[in-house]
C-alpha cells in the first residue's frame, strides 16, 4: 500500500511517501492518547472552537493552494476543488459555532429526584477515508469529533497523500496540540493493528462496501462502535409533471459532478414513460457536450477519473453491462487521444434485472437509464437495489414529492435537485450504503458518551 501522488490527467508520478514503521505508529498512538487525556478533553468548547475557526480561516486564505492539490492528486476540476475547500471550511465553522449547543446537558423529567444526560468524549477515534473528496471527507469526520473533545487519527486513501498531509499541517497551523489530529501513512495490516489497539475507542469509514466490511468486522471483534458511509446507486426519479429542463440540468450535474465519482451521484435515472423520450434527447445532448482537458484549466468541463485503475474498472463494468444485454446510447469507452484516465460520458439503456449492472454502483460518468410506466414502478425500481444512500424526485407537486420520498428506502431524498451536502444536513444511508450519520446535529452524537447522572 504505497502512498503515491499520481496526476490522473497525465499519469505523472508527483511524489511518493514512506509508510511509517510500527515503532513510529506506536509513538503517534501514544501522543494521541496523551493529548486526549492531558489536554484536549479538558479544553472548553470555546478553546476548541478557536482552533477549528482558525483552521477554517486558513483554509479560505489558502484556498487556491489547497484546491490545486486536490486537482493534481485526483483530477477534480479546479472550480469543483475550490468548492470542496469552501465546503470543508464551512463544516469546521459550523461545528465551532454549534457544538456546545448540540452537546448541552439534557435535564430529564423524572418522577423523583433529578436526572441529567451529559455528553462526554470517548477518546481517540480512527477514521479511514477515501480520495473522492479529500478534504471534505476528513473535515466531516474531524470537525464534530474534535469539538466533542475526542482526538482523531486518519488513514487517508493512498492516492491523496499530499492532501492528507496538508490537512494535518492545517490543524497544526491552526493551533491544534500535537496528537489532536494525526495523519497516518499506514499499511492495511497496520489499519488492523490500530483498530485492535485499546487506546482507539471507535472507528469511522467512508469508502467501498469491501473496505467497510473488513474494517467493521475488525472493529466488531473489538466491540468498538463504527459508522460506515459506503457506496450508493441513487435513483433520480422524473415524474410526469416535472419541470423537464430543470430535471435534465440536475441529472447532468448529479451524474457528472466530480466526474461521477460521488457516493450520492445520480446513478440510476428513472423516468416515467410520458417524459422519457424528451428527457433522454436533452440528457444525451448535454452529456455529449462535455469537453475533456486539463482539470486545472477553468475551461475544461470533463475531468479524468481519479486513476488509471478506476477507468479500467469502469470500462469493465460497461463491458459486463453490454454483455448482459444493455445498449450504449452514447459514450461507452475511454476518450481517445488523451493520456489521462478519461471516460466518455455514457448512457446505458435496456438494463434488465438479470444484468449485472442492475445491482452495481458505477463510480464514474456512466448513467443507467430506466423507463417506467408510472410513479409506483419508479419507487419499486428505486428500492430494488442493495444500496440505500440518497435519491431524487422531480415533480412540481411538492406534497406528491414528499409522499414519494417517504416510500424510498434511503437515508436522504432530495425533491427537485440532485443530492448535495451541507454542514447542517445529516448525511448517511441504510442497507449496504452503511449506517450512522455524519454532519448536522446528528453527526456529533455518534462518538460521545451519553452519560446519565441521577440524583436520588
Ligand atoms: P476503498 O474503499 O478501497 O478506499 C477507501 C479507504 O479505505 C481508503 O483509505 C483505503 O485505503 C481504505 N481501505 C481499502 N481497503 C481496506 C482494507 N481492506 N483495510 C483497511 N483499509 C482499507 O475505495 P476505492 O478507492 O478502492 O474505490 C472503489 C469503490 O469504493 C468505488 O467504486 C465506490 O464504490 C466506493 N467509494 C465510495 C466512496 C464514498 O464516498 N462512499 C468514496 C470512494 C470510493 P487505500 O487507498 O490505501 O487502499
TrEMBL record:
- One Pfam family hit: Aldedh
SUPFAM superfamilies assigned to the protein according to its UniProt record, in alphabetical order: ALDH-like (SSF53720)
Q: Which InterPro entries does the entry link to? A: Ald_DH/histidinol_DH, Ald_DH_C, Ald_DH_N, Aldehyde_DH_dom, ALDH_GabD1-like, GABD/Sad-like
GO function terms (MF aspect)? aldehyde dehydrogenase [NAD(P)+] activity; succinate-semialdehyde dehydrogenase (NAD+) activity
Q: Which domain of life is it from?
A: Bacteria
| Record's keyword terms, sorted | NADP, Oxidoreductase
Q: Which residues form the Aldehyde dehydrogenase domain?
A: 3-452
Q: To which protein family does this belong?
A: Belongs to the aldehyde dehydrogenase family.
Question: What PANTHER family does the record point to?
Answer: SUCCINATE SEMIALDEHYDE DEHYDROGENASE [NAD(P)+] SAD (PTHR43217), SUCCINATE-SEMIALDEHYDE DEHYDROGENASE [NADP(+)] (PTHR43217:SF2)
Name of this chain's protein: NAD-dependent succinate-semialdehyde dehydrogenase
Organism, by scientific name, is Polaromonas hydrogenivorans
Amino acid at each position: 500500500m504505497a502512498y503515491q501522488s499520481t496526476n490522473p490527467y497525465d499519469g505523472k508520478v508527483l511524489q511518493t511517501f514512506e509508510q511509517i514503521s510500527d515503532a513510529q505508529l506506536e509513538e503517534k498512538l501514544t501522543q494521541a492518547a496523551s493529548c486526549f487525556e492531558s489536554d484536549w478533553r479538558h479544553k472548553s468548547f470555546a478553546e476548541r472552537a478557536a482552533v477549528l475557526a482558525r483552521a477554517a480561516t486558513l483554509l479560505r486564505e489558502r484556498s487556491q493552494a489547497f484546491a490545486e492539490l486536490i486537482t493534481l492528486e485526483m483530477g477534480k476540476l479546479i472550480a469543483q476543488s475550490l468548492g470542496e475547500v469552501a465546503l470543508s471550511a464551512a463544516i469546521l465553522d459550523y461545528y465551532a459555532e454549534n457544538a456546545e449547543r448540540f452537546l448541552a446537558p439534557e435535564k430529564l423529567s423524572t418522577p423523583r429526584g433529578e436526572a441529567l444526560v451529559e455528553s462526554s468524549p470517548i477518546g481517540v477515534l480512527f477514521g479511514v477515508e477515501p480520495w473522492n473528496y479529500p478534504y471534505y471527507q476528513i473535515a466531516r469526520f474531524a470537525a464534530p469529533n474534535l469539538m466533542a473533545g475526542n482526538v482523531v487519527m486518519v488513514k487517508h486513501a493512498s492516492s491523496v497523500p499530499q492532501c492528507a498531509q496538508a490537512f494535518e499541517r492545517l490543524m497544526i497551523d491552526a493551533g491544534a496540540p500535537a496528537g489532536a489530529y494525526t495523519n497516518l501513512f499506514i499499511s492495511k495490516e497496520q489499519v488492523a493493528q490500530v483498530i485492535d489497539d485499546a487506546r482507539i475507542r471507535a472507528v469511522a469509514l467512508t469508502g467501498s462496501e469491501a473496505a467497510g466490511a473488513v474494517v467493521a468486522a475488525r472493529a466488531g471483534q473489538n466491540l468498538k462502535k463504527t459508522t460506515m458511509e459506503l457506496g450508493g446507486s441513487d435513483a433520480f426519479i422524473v415524474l410526469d409533471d416535472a419541470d423537464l429542463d430543470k430535471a435534465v440540468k440536475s441529472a447532468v450535474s448529479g451524474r457528472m459532478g466530480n466526474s461521477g465519482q460521488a457516493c450520492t451521484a445520480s446513478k440510476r435515472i428513472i423516468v416515467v414513460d410520458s417524459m422519457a423520450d424528451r428527457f433522454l434527447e436533452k440528457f444525451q445532448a448535454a452529456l455529449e457536450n462535455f469537453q475533456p482537458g486539463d482539470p486545472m484549466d477553468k475551461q475544461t468541463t470533463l475531468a479524468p477519473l481519479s486513476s488509471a485503475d478506476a477507468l479500467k474498472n469502469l470500462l469493465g463494468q460497461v463491458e459486463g453491462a453490454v454483455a448482459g444485454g444493455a445498449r450504449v446510447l452514447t459514450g461507452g469507452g475511454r476518450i481517445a487521444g488523451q493520456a489521462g484516465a478519461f471516460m466518455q460520458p455514457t448512457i446505458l439503456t435496456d438494463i434488465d434485472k438479470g444484468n449485472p449492472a442492475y445491482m452495481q454502483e458505477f463510480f464514474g460518468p456512466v448513467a443507467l437509464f430506466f423507463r417506467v410506466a408510472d410513479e409506483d414502478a419508479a419507487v419499486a425500481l428505486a428500492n430494488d437495489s442493495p444500496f440505500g444512500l440518497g435519491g431524487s424526485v422531480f415533480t412540481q407537486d411538492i406534497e406528491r414529492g414528499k409522499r414519494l420520498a417517504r416510500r424510498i428506502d434511503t437515508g436522504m431524498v432530495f425533491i427537485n435537485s440532485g443530492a448535495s451536502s451541507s454542514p447542517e444536513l445529516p448525511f448517511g444511508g441504510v442497507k449496504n450504503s452503511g449506517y450512522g450519520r455524519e454532519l448536522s446535529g446528528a453527526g456529533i452524537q455518534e462518538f460521545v458518551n451519553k452519560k446519565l447522572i441521577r440524583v436520588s
